[in-house]
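Justification of resources, computational component.

The compute hours requested in this renewal are based largely on the per-chain cost of generating structure records like the one below. Each record pairs the submitted sequence with a full structure-token output. That output is archived, and it is also reused by downstream analysis tasks.
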Amino acid sequence: MQMTMRWFGTGYDTVTLEQIRQIPGVTGVITTLYGTLPGEAWEREAILALKKDAEDAGLSVAGIESVNIHDAIKTGAPERDKYIDNYITTLERLGEAGIRLVCYNFMPVFDWTRTDLARKRTDNSTTLAYNQKLIDSLEPGALNDSISSQSKGFVLAGWEPGRLGHLKELFELYRGIDREKLFANLEYFIERVMPVCGKYDINMAIHPDDPAWPVFGLPRIVTGKEDLLRITGFTGDTHHGVTLCTGSLGTNPANDIPGIIRTLKGRIHFAHVRNLRHNGPGDFEECAHLSGDGSLDMFAIMKAFHDIGYDGPVRPDHGRAIWGEAAMPGYGLYDRALGAAYLNGLWEAIEKTAPGG
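The structure output for this chain reads:
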């Protein structure tokens, strides 16, 4: 596997490439052109400049997260082909630059949902958290206002003000879009982009829904093993695959994450590995990566990746805010660096104790 770190780019991220380079075992970044809007075709020069920034710091661009999907594609609107054509142009330019992985999601309206960006834990760290009872008491606009007020001035991925400033219109777009229509619109998109992915050897890796159930009545179609098997079954082209996010799948305690990993052998192109703690039904908080700090068995998860011969990029996912760091919620340096070191340690132990290790 290749240990990586998400980096939002100069001008957006408080964490620098120089700092990432100093984390033992981290050799690449997962990055994006953060200022682009869904539906835009990425400029070739901007892609090359982003890649040069990483390589000048001694890191590779291991993948892009995300080339966001325009809502017209998700809803199957008449203008969707225009935006898919732009997406294909972006994939061509990424392929020409030698970038072979794109992580994306197909979640309606909200990219991910939390109710608290700084829930205080018993160790006085703060973390991202979710409470279904609070969601049930709020209107979408009130949640958007709450998240904006907690964002510490950062533009959060998936919560861009320019887009979510039109929540009523967005919800109207998704009126009548149920699970089956969303599945069909995803399949249409995959069929359109697979030829260019094959040409440039680009792996498209869909990210699970977060949390793994409907929010505000919006459909979710990437929630567990059955959904993932259905989606990967759209085509036999293995460039169409999955970002295995343990935290998103782990929001549902019924999901057997090591089992899902083994089931999807050959179709996992990227891994987000993090832990979370369940406090009760519909109430969870993100925690340190250490197994004992949360509800997920991180050793069993990493062993499952090893057992299937996974050799793609891995990144520690959201971290707590610790040691007084001021950073984008979930994306500070310190706790994610600890997570990378911990996951690398688990991997080394698994490799050395495996038969023939």
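The radius of gyration is 19 Å. The first strand starts at residue 2 and ends at 6.
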